[in-house]
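Notes to self after the Tuesday call (sharing in case useful).
The group wants a holo model before anyone commits to mutagenesis around the pocket. I volunteered. Ligand is glutamine. Logging inputs and output together so the record is complete.
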Amino acid sequence: MDFQKILDEIQEDVQPYFGKGAVADYIPALARVSPDQFAMALRLADGTEYSVGSAETPFSIQSISKLFSLMLAMDIMGEDLWTRVGREPSGTAFNSLVQLEYENGIPRNPFINAGAIVVTDVIASHSANAPRRVADFVRQLSGNDQNRVDEEVALSEWEHGYRNAALANLLRSFNNITGDVDSVLDVYFRQCAITMNCLDLVRAVQPLVLGGHSPIANRQVLTQREAKRVNAIMLTCGLYDAVGNFAYSVGLPAKSGVGGGIVAVLPGQFSIAVWAPELDAAGNSLVGTRALELFTTKTGLSIF
Ligand code: GLN
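Result:
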């Protein structure tokens, strides 16, 4: 299959969809991002890579960081993690508070903010230098030392993080956060503010393609079983309240972020990442979703 030709075609095909979404505007640093950017990268299981557009331009990974923190927390706590966070889609917005109250402080899944904050607490309570741990892990997986916390974004997340602070306090009131609320939020905001590009992302998620093995870090970062499970959670919970439509139209386990990035995998075959900053109403990249849909349609490659 001529993957380069397919990516080039997709870049052309998605042009009519620019201008139909809106960049995240809850913090100035994201509101300023130019909306017309586009990048896509593909990495096959044998290490061959293809890309189109600004695949080396770093962007704010935001909720894609929840994937890396989940991998770390699974490694730390194993199955016990699931006593503190569930594995069901939430059917609500990523930053919703209501469900957490009536489900007694157990977040539906690790990919909504409440669940990610619990996962962050697990990492924070098992790390000497928690704020660095997720970024260090990401750098190992991507092989790129430039994957750093954007301090301006991290600070803005703090300044505008009222909902996340509310979620963290509610979790603390149910004893589902053990550490100091502000310290946990600090780690959470910093992981959201990590920057990566599309090529970094397809390299960093290779453990989800290769049964837990990272060819970049040259080690097994998850067991094969854990990798399978992370993929299952991506499929059912990775796109917030749009996850059903995404499975329907794209058909790949994926994780998105409000920076406009989406990373997806076909276990055993490839990882693919796309970045286009304009979001749809659910907070997922509008052009990015369309591009991934075109990719699985044109290639006939999806988990279904
Ligand atoms: N930093 C954002 C938040 O916590 C991340 C949300 C997202 O990417 N969906 O609200």
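Two things stood out.
The pocket of glutamine is lined by residues 62-63, 94-95, 113, 157, 164, 192, 257-258, 283 (CB under 6 Å).
The mean pLDDT is 96.
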